[in-house]
Specification:
CATH architecture of chain B: 3-Layer(aba) Sandwich
Radius of gyration of chain B: 17 Å
CATH superfamily of chain B: HUPs
Radius of gyration of chain A: 19 Å
Shape of chain B: globular
Largest interface: A-B, 65 and 55 residues
Oligomer: heterodimer
Strand order of the largest sheet of chain B: 3-2-1-4-5
Number of helices of chain B: 6
Structural class of chain B: alpha/beta
Low-confidence stretches of chain B: none
Order of helices and strands of chain B: EHEHHEHEHEH
Order of helices and strands of chain A: EHHHHHHHHHHHHHH
Distance between the termini of chain B: 44 Å
Strand content of chain B: 15-25%
Distance between the termini of chain A: 56 Å
Helix content of chain B: 40-55%
Strand content of chain A: under 5%
Structural class of chain A: mainly alpha
Number of strands of chain A: 1
Low-confidence stretches of chain A: none
CATH superfamily of the largest domain in chain A: DNA Cyclobutane Dipyrimidine Photolyase, subunit A, domain 3
CATH topology of the largest domain in chain A: DNA Cyclobutane Dipyrimidine Photolyase, subunit A, domain 3
CATH class of chain B: Alpha Beta
């Protein structure tokens, strides 16, 4: 069936599309909204031109750092991966920042290569976990987590941003994944589904294999974080608003003892 | 032979390599109904794809991808299909089904590095050391 183009503002077009695609997305129709991030090559090229690589290496782990936010354009081939890499080379030359940025694009190539080899095998544990994981078989995360009601401001705000905008910073993804898999002992595939549903850059291989990297089923060790790490890279604002007993306020050896002792 | 281009979710812009090989060709993008009904993506993702497709494709369709492409080819008088390669198993399965009915030319995707057939590593560090020299 042919799908006609909708006219009007983005909001009006989104309303038209939501009606035409009922049953093909997870929200109720009245909650179906467009993201603040605009699709299409015109928007992608504008974002690419705006991106300056200086400072990338030193600040990319900070939530407010100089990251490109080009992932959704690259994932959908709106910008070519080589086009992005070459744009940085032409505009800024070879520098420590550029090399770090290219390396991050390289991760995407690595995941893509493995997807070609493994296909749906990306959803199977690639290796035995290096630490005890949960033994559940849940396919969905609990509503308390996906609706941002854990009481942990850092996690609830991460979920809110993801659901509202379709994008979160890579470090926030890592914290959330580690929280789900290691602190809550939930099945990594349930978290993977949740991200895939909402991330505008949701890519089967990058997403599933990154969850496995956190879980330690595709890495040498599990990824853990603590409150100090959140404050250093995300600022103190979340913690200042939080009244929950913080499960992340500990040293790494203490967390490992707490989370991984049988 | 009149060629048409199938644009999919891994290659959804005018930069699509198949479209660049056939710049005059008509192009189509399909929202795959069976997949979307099962995947339960957020509407934001669907709308993002829509915004990409509006700019990139001559026609957008909703339904089962292979059926929709074949119908579109009939409607446009297109005899051969060109499409950019994807590692997705769903994409491969669709190409196989299309090939039972029409000629399909698979165009290599744009890559940053070249991975040769049979290359195998288990971790990123050796992968990038071997293949990322141009970017290191």
């Amino acid at each position: 069936m042919k799908l006609e183009k909708f006219s009007g503002t983005r909001e009006e077009q989104a309303r038209g599309l939501a009606k035409a695609m009922v049953g093909m997305y997870c929200e109720k129709i009245e909650k179906a909204r467009e993201s603040i991030h605009v699709g299409g090559r015109k928007a992608g090229l504008e974002a690419l031109e705006k991106f300056q690589v200086q400072g990338y290496a030193g600040t990319r782990n900070k939530l407010k750092g100089n990251v490109s936010r080009l992932s959704f354009y690259i994932r959908h081939g709106v910008l070519g991966i080589r086009e992005v890499a070459e744009s940085v080379r032409e505009r800024f030359g070879k520098s420590y920042d550029a090399i770090k940025f290219w390396q991050e694009l390289g991760w995407r190539q690595f995941w893509r290569h493995l997807y070609g080899l493994w296909g749906d095998g990306i959803y199977e544990d690639r290796e035995a976990a290096k630490v005890p994981l949960g033994s559940g078989t849940e396919t969905e995360l609990p509503a308390q987590i996906t609706e941002g009601r854990t009481g942990l401001v850092c996690m609830d705000e991460t979920v809110r941003e993801l659901v509202e905008t379709g994008y979160i910073h890579n470090h926030a993804r890592m914290w959330f994944a580690s929280f789900v898999v290691h602190f809550r002992k939930l099945e990594w595939r349930a978290g993977e589904r949740f991200f895939y549903r909402h991330l505008l850059d949701g890519d089967p291989a990058s997403n599933a294999l990154s969850w496995q990297w956190v879980a330690s089923t595709f890495s040498h060790r599990p990824y853990l974080f603590n409150r100090e790490n959140i404050q250093e890279n995300g600022g103190r604002e979340w913690c200042e608003r939080c009244t929950a007993k913080c499960p992340f306020d500990a040293t790494y050896p203490e967390l490992e003892r707490r989370l991984f002792s049988k | 032979m009149k060629t048409g281009v199938w644009l999919h979710g891994d290659s959804l812009s005018k930069r699509d390599p198949a479209l660049r090989n056939y710049p005059e060709a008509r192009s189509v993008f399909v929202f795959d109904r069976p997949f979307l009904e099962k995947a339960g993506l957020s509407f934001k993702r669907i709308f993002f794809l829509y915004e990409c497709a509006v700019e990139a494709a001559d026609e957008m369709r909703v339904g089962e991808t292979v059926e929709e492409i074949l119908n579109w080819m009939g409607q446009e008088g297109v005899e051969k299909l060109a499409v950019t390669e994807s590692p997705s198993p769903r994409w491969r399965e669709k190409v196989e089904r299309l090939r039972q009915k029409v000629e399909v030319e698979v165009v290599p995707a744009e890559e940053m590095v070249t991975v040769s057939e049979g290359y195998r590593v288990k971790r990123f560090t050796p992968f990038w050391k071997d293949l990322g020299r141009e970017w290191s």
